[in-house]
Predict the structure.
Amino acid sequence: MSSDTLENLSFLYVEDDPSSRQVMDLLLTKAMKVGNLTIFADSKDFLHRLQSLAPLPDIILLDIHVEPYDGFEMLNMIRQIPALRNCKVIALTASVMNEEVEAMREKGFDGTISKPLRMSEFPSLIRRIAAGGDVWYIE
């Protein structure tokens, strides 16, 4: 993934908070010119909805505290889909205790970005992820 081609990447964001969904939509589509963004307001029927996406996402941003499946459960589903083997999965969470971040690492997330999002930092973090880097941004 090249950081110069955000407009060619496909993103999925799973978030139950309406204002967070709106902020992410504005950031990614308007400010960063991402070409394809899908937003799920919950994780109901997650696996089926994910596999129905065309194109499949290159980067998935998961709120950890979503229902009925939390971020860890969704990550497990994602990791079982061979076509998503190279997909970057990033946890977005307000839970930034060291043990929780370590659990995210151990379970296989490619990174974590703490909430609330910092508008001044977020674009460079996404570009780093798109370029293949891991991001563990906790503030």
Notes: The CA atoms of residues 108 and 137 lie 16 Å apart.
